[in-house]
Amino acid sequence: MAVFAYEATDTESARVTGTLIADTPRDARDRLREWGLSVHALSDRSMPGRGQVSTGFIPWLGRVCRSRAGGLSARRHGAAALFLRELATLLQVGVPMLEALDTVIRQTPKRQRATWLLLRDRVAAGGSLAEAAREAKRYNQPAFDPISTAMIEVGEDAGRLAEVLEETAAFRERAGELKNRLASALIYPAVVSFVGIAVCLFLMTYVVPGLLESLVDSGRPLPWITRAVRAMSQGLIAWGPFLSVAALVFFVVFALIVRTPRGRYVWHTLLLNLPGVGGVLKKQAVVRLSFVLSTLLRSGVPFERAVGIAKGVTNNAVLQNALTQCERDVHAGRDLGPALEATKAFPPTVVQVFALGQASGTLENLLDRLARSYDRQVATLTDRLTALIEPVLIVLLAVAVGAIAFATVLPILEISNSF
To answer: How far is Cα of residue 132 from the mean position of the Cα atoms in its chain?
Structure first.
């Protein structure tokens, strides 16, 4: 399926423009003729490859990445937030929905218009904005994530769409900040680790063999550190292809195991129990969960439905299972606090906040405070963790490169001292 923009005239020679969905340009022209329109111009507004069913490793990888991100890439998260905020502004000043959509679409870069044109087409046909978003997802052009779609639907039902769109845009922006914080903290350690491993492999496979060859031919005994480095270098050269294949097989098998429900649960349990890192990951997950629930509840989404949506966007399988158990217990009539405590997956502070929120009827406000408090703690812990990892990696890199350099220079110095 593709999105086509058309210019045509009707039976009264009036100019008509709009968009429609069709498999091919021919199908689009045939449908327009069925509507009694005379087509003058027709252009494909879809992104390259959008709507096409593709096979192979690269499309599979793209689908996996989109599913892990809730159906939207990081770039489209930002585009969706901007679209929602501008649409909310226009609706708040009284601009009709279709006119507001046309105005926002005109300001959108051409490469990003396909999804918004699809939304506009469905709204023009009489559907709601939430229905249009679900329709776009069926055509492999997701406009919003499940949380945003649910909030938009509630806003339309309650007659406060503009206000909810503003809240949804704020939610999307803050969710992007939460996701980028941990990723930004890991960029430097990842780069240092990659460079360190690459430098060590280059030295061990290309530099060390040439330097030590003449020393071995001289027949002089080599120091123990030189013999150790030479043995590792020979091992890497001899077993390099096998080790590369073994590493690739390991990562493929690991990825397949983690994709299974049991393997994913065990892996996430191990991550949450890691010293230092586990606490940051758990609080990061609590921040996301609390912020999602508070936003949904403030928008009017019922609690059980809000928990179901939050469960779907929570990446950690341990917390997902805990929310599922909590949802069942609450549906059976159990209080929220004891239901969460029984899962043993949340800190006591979180359990207490949920219990007080249910008792006082201000759950969304308390969850928002909890999210902000834990967010500050995550920022502090992330900064401390990064500050600790950076010097450790630099020292390890210096020790590894220094050991290789020392192992090659030491026998040369011994030979020069013997003369």
So the answer is: 23
Task: Report residue 373 CA to chain centroid gap.
Answer: 23
Residues facing 17 on adjacent strands: 7
Checking phi first, is residue 4 left (phi over 0); if not, alpha (psi -120 to 50) or beta? beta
In this predicted model, which residue has the larger pLDDT, 31 or 85? Answer: 85
Is residue 132 within 8 A of residue 119, CB to CB? The reply is yes
Beta bridge partners of 42: 6
Helix, strand, or coil here: 23?
A: coil
Q: How far apart are CA 357 and CA 355, in angstroms?
A: 5
Distance CA 176, CA 274 (A): 25
Cβ atoms 119, 133 nearer than 8 A? yes
DSSP for 153-204, please give it. HHHHHHT-HHHHHHHHHHHHHHHHHHHHHHHHHHHHHHHHHHHHHHHHHHII
Band of the pLDDT at 324, cuts 50, 70, 90? confident
Distance of alpha carbon 395 from alpha carbon 391, whole angstroms: 6
CA gap 259, 317 in Å, rounded: 11
List the end-to-end C-alpha distance of the chain, in Å, as a whole number: 81
Q: Give the predicted TM-score (pTM) of the model.
A: 0.63
Phi, psi of 301 (to 5 degrees): -75, 130
Q: How confident is the model at residue 141 (pLDDT cuts 50, 70, 90)?
A: low
Q: Is 41 helix (H, G, I), strand (E, B) or coil?
A: strand
| 77 or 320, higher pLDDT | 320
- Cα 225 to Cα 50: distance, rounded to the nearest angstrom: 57
Distance between CA atoms of 277 and 186, rounded to whole angstroms? Answer: 12
Count the neighbouring beta carbons within 10 Å of the beta carbon of residue 177: 10
Q: How does DSSP classify residue 112?
A: G
Whether residue 347 has pLDDT greater than 80: yes
